Amino acid sequence: MRNQSESIYLIKYIFFKGGLFKFIGFNIKKILFKIFYKKPRNNYPRNIQDDIDKIFNRMQYLDIEIHSLKNNKTTRKIKLASRYIELSTSIDWDIKYDDYEDYEALHRFRWIRDICSKKNNLSIDDINFIEIIVMSWYIYNKSKMESPDLSWCSHTLSERICNIIVLKELMKKRQISSDFIDKLLNNFIKNLLTKLEYYPYGFGNHLINNMRSILIYSLVYKNSDLEKISFKLIKNTLDEFIFNSYTLDQSSHYQILLYYWLYDISHFSNKYSRSQISTVINQYVKILGKSSLNFISKNNHMIYFGDISPDYSPNYLLKLITNDYSGDYNPYNLYNKI
Questions:
Q1: How far apart (Å, rounded) are the C-alpha atoms in residues 321 and 319?
Q2: DSSP type of residue 244
Q3: What are φ and ψ of residue 45, in 5° steps?
Q4: 11 vs 178 pLDDT, higher one
Q5: Which of 127, 150, 152, 314 has a beta carbon 3.0–4.6 Å from 302's, enabling a disulfide?
Q6: pLDDT value of residue 11
């Protein structure tokens, strides 16, 4: 069977090249981290901490004023992690769900990409709706930025940045400017620099997503300092995180999610003519794309191995890996719009 290849590489990872010792050491460090917790910033490697601090200090939190929201009664049905809800400016952003991943999904704004992944063209009304929902979110959540609330954890923040950048690109194509969106993304990035997911025992895929959001932001806003450090760090993390063509989180779903993140970077680096970045990223895209084919059964169904991601369905992600342009809901529809 095609999925045997991953099992073989998993066994190789555990028992060769110190994999067994890495596995044991990783879990010991994880337990110690729970006991002796430190703020994320204190875990940054010394060789990058100074560079990040310099960039952080050069950036300024920008004042954002929203006096009132436009009267917009439009609603849209959106999918969270395990349920659908009606989204409008009157939504209760503090609502708690039985599944905390639904709460996180609400604040990650994946629904922006869901809207753009449909075949139909977007209207100005669609773009205005997205922007006013983002404004509504900001009004009710800006005070939580320094809190431990899940809406401001680094992974959720990274996803929100990447998804609001989609809105930025939609507006740019129609020559619409938004001082609000520009300032909001600036403030998000500055805040994210304080909570990159480095841990005493290493890092996981969330750090790669942190770097993805910073790198894409740097391309869109032509910030060379952020581009330089985020590209360097994402390359270093990928070199460690991909082993024998598979990711170390040992999950078929999370591997194709990482493929999606890298495809995202490739798209923006090509769009903004950063061939050095796209050349390097495309190497990882090719490696993961090839090995991820082993996760597809003869009946073209996803073979699940390891943890399941609440972010995107395998059917959606696999379309990129198999070059499948069919269906009303497709990531290629998104990239054609931005």
A1: 6
A2: T
A3: -60, 140
A4: 178
A5: 314
A6: 54
Residue 44: Cβ-neighbour burial (10 angstroms; 0-12, 13-18, 19+): middle
> Which two structure tokens, joined as six digits, stand for 209?
């997503």
Task: Fill in the amino acid letter for 70.
Answer: K
pLDDT of residue 111: 95
77: enclosing H helix or E strand: strand 76-79
Cβ atoms of 216 and 268 within 8 Å: the answer is: yes
209 φ, ψ to 5°? -70, -35
Residue pair 113/327 in contact by the 8 Å Cβ criterion: no
Q: Give the pair of three-digit tokens for residue 204.
A: 């996981």
Query: How far, CA to CA in Å, does 99 sit from each of 68, 95, 105, 209?
Result: 32, 11, 10, 22
At 269, the pLDDT band (50, 70, 90 cuts) reads very high
Start-to-end C-alpha separation, the chain = 38
Output the domain CATH number for residue 95.
Answer: 1.50.10
Residue 307: alpha-carbon gap to chain centroid = 17
Q: Which two tokens stand for residue 197?
A: 């997911």
Q: What residues make up the domain containing 165?
A: 4-337
Three-state DSSP class for 86?
strand
Confidence (pTM): 0.88
DSSP assignments along 180-215, one per residue: HHHHHHHHHHHHHTT---EETTEE-HHHHHHHHHHH
Token pair belonging to 129 = 């709706």
Number of domains in the chain: 1
Cα–Cα distance between 206 and 196 in angstroms, integer?
8
pLDDT digits (tens, 9 = 90+) for 252-268: 999 999 999 999 999 99
Percentage of residues in the chain having pLDDT higher than 90? 70
